[in-house]
Automatic annotation (TrEMBL):
Matches recorded under InterPro entries: Acyl_CoA_acyltransferase, Chromo-like_dom_sf, Chromo/chromo_shadow_dom, HAT_MYST-type, MYST_HAT, Tudor-knot, WH-like_DNA-bd_sf, Zf-MYST
Record key words, sorted: Acetylation, Activator, Acyltransferase, Chromatin regulator, Metal-binding, Nucleus, Transcription, Transcription regulation, Transferase, Zinc, Zinc-finger
Family stated for the protein in its record: Belongs to the MYST (SAS/MOZ) family.
Record-level GO BP terms: DNA repair; regulation of transcription by RNA polymerase II; response to UV-B
Places the protein is found: Nucleus
Signal peptide start-end: none
Species of provenance: Corchorus olitorius
Protein name: Histone acetyltransferase
Reactions catalysed, as given in the entry: L-lysyl-[protein] + acetyl-CoA = N(6)-acetyl-L-lysyl-[protein] + CoA + H(+)
Active site residues per record: 344
Biased composition (Polar residues): 1-18
Lineage of producing organism: Eukaryota, Viridiplantae, Streptophyta, Embryophyta, Tracheophyta
Keyword set includes Acyltransferase: yes
């Protein structure tokens, strides 16, 4: 990712933006001499000022360089613009997309952050996208995106995707407060119209009701008697707890959870009819209650054997193994049901990356310990992973061959060790002995 970093979480839990110092003179980039001392730049000529003024206000679609929070300039595309209250005719703020990076970094910027000398009038988007792609290494692309896992809900054709991006191009909520964390949002979420003028929302971390003002949240917290999600606790191991929430019994909670999740998932379909879903909410527990870490949803009845519809780890808790824990937990439920499972299709690239990592580690661990031959069906029975997922995973690792009309697993010990090393550490372990759960079909 080079010099770009996603926002970090401060010790008190707030999301800290690395704010850049303002430029020394309007659009001018700061200059320094060889010894580091500031150099006085000559004033702009009247011709330069007139030329710049003629560009304003910038049109939607303009390509320009923008100073980001790391104090460096990056290429952006103007997505939207709005008048600055009480400003002059050309006083606008601009909503920009950093063309090298994920949409979640899109933001409103002031004119002084833009380098007007870099304005591009005509750009072939296909050529530019190709150049941008070539500039970024695979590692850089993964670095910027690896915390964002979205599974399923990407059943959009090209026309629908363009319509979706047009409708959701501008983030409507900039930040939320959830428990002890203030979190910068990543994407648009279709909150009710009365919240459309709110840059920040305040969530009750237990019932997920949301409010416009801090005082409303404080009043609510004095009355709210929940200290955990409104469902059945089905798992407790140490400080980790998992709650099953029935969307039909807890409709408002399920809908609020979808609103919240959409702020961090780009192409997630927002389901208003949550009756058909079960939500599995992972929490960290302390003496103040059970604090939501992430969740996955699951259809109560899936004809396609989907054992997971949507998955999210909230930003303050990412890179701690919780995503892999949620995936592993979904498969433990499948084992309890006596079924094989698979995540809802189609998978996003990042969803596939996350699942492929889980499948790889689980299968390699078994192959490493197993003596003698083992079939794909036997692996499927042991892991609850669908046979097709096992086959594609092993093929990607060059651990399978096609001989005499059938697939044969070739588990060379040295190759297994090499793949295990590359797979990295696993996520948090699910202690199955702590799981107390009855499959939905058996519930009264």
């Amino acid at each position: 990712m080079g010099s770009i970093d996603t926002p970090t979480i401060t010790e008190n839990g707030s999301t800290q933006s690395h704010a850049a110092a303002p430029a020394a003179d309007g659009d001018q980039k700061p200059h320094a001499s060889a010894n580091g001392a500031p150099v006085e730049m000559p004033p702009e000529s009247e011709a330069t000022k007139r030329r710049r003024a003629s560009m304003l206000p910038l049109e939607v679609g303009t390509r320009v360089m923008c100073r980001w929070r790391d104090a460096k300039y990056h290429p952006v595309k103007v997505i939207e613009r709005r008048k600055v209250p009480y400003g002059g005719a050309n006083d606008y703020e601009y909503y920009v997309h950093y063309t090298e990076f994920n949409r979640r970094l899109d933001e409103w910027v002031k004119l002084e952050q833009l380098d007007l000398d870099s304005v591009e009038t005509v750009v072939d988007e296909k050529v530019e996208d190709k150049v941008t792609s070539l500039k970024m290494t695979r590692h850089q692309k993964r670095k910027i995106d690896e915390t964002h896992v979205e599974v399923g809900h990407e059943e959009l054709d090209a026309a629908s995707l363009r319509e979706h991006e047009e409708f959701t191009k501008v983030k409507n909520i900039a930040t939320i407060e959830l428990g002890r964390y203030e979190i910068e949002t990543w994407y648009f979420s279709p909150f009710p119209p009365e919240y459309s003028d709110c840059l920040k929302l305040y969530f009750c971390e237990f019932c997920l009701n949301f409010m416009k003002r801090k005082e409303q949240l404080q009043r609510h917290m004095r009355k709210c008697d929940l200290k955990h999600p409104p469902g059945d606790e089905i798992y407790r191991s140490g400080t980790l707890s998992m709650f099953e929430v029935d969307g039909k019994k807890n409709k408002v909670y399920g809908q609020n959870l979808c609103y919240l999740a959409k702020l961090f998932l780009d192409h997630k379909t927002l389901y208003y009819d949550v009756d058909l879903f079960l939500f599995y909410v992972l929490c960290e527990c302390d003496d103040r209650g059970c604090h939501m870490v992430g969740y996955f949803s699951k259809e109560k009845h899936s004809e396609e054997s989907y054992n997971l519809a949507c998955i999210l780890t909230l930003p303050p808790y990412q890179r701690k193994g919780y995503g892999k824990f949620l995936i592993a937990f979904s498969y433990e439920l499948s084992k309890k049901e006596g079924k094989v499972g698979t995540p809802e299709r189609p998978l996003s690239d990042l969803g596939l990356l996350s699942y492929r990592g889980y499948w790889t580690r689980v299968l390699l661990d078994i192959l490493k310990k197993h003596k003698g031959n083992i079939s794909i069906k036997e692996l499927s029975d042991m892991t609850a992973i669908k046979a097709e997922d096992i086959l594609t995973t092993l093929q990607s690792l060059d651990l399978i061959q096609y001989r005499k009309g059938q697939h044969v697993i070739c588990a060379d010990p040295k190759l297994l060790d090499r793949h295990l090393k590359a797979a990295g550490r696993g996520g948090l372990e699910v202690d199955v002995s702590k799981l107390i759960w009855t499959p939905y079909k058996e519930q009264s």
